[in-house]
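Example record for the data management plan.
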Amino acid sequence: DKGESRKIRNEYMNLNMRTVNRRKKRKATEDPVEAAALDAEIKQLQKQLRSMPVRDEMDENYRRLRYVRYADDFLIGVIGSKQ
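Corresponding structural encoding:
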């Protein structure tokens, strides 16, 4: 079995959903003070999102095999368990 792609990290998804909810709240608000506070929070959340990896690098269900042939040699690259 192999996964199509690595799964998305839960921490990233939670932070992304918080950002989406803050944007919805920002769009609905008319108070300039609250809007400025939400803008600052959204900016801070986006900064956190950019600093963390999206996908789980150690996903156990993801495997990939790469084969490269060059002249008389070949290389096999394995991502995942070797069993």
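Summary line stored alongside the record: Residues 32-51 form the longest helix (20 residues).
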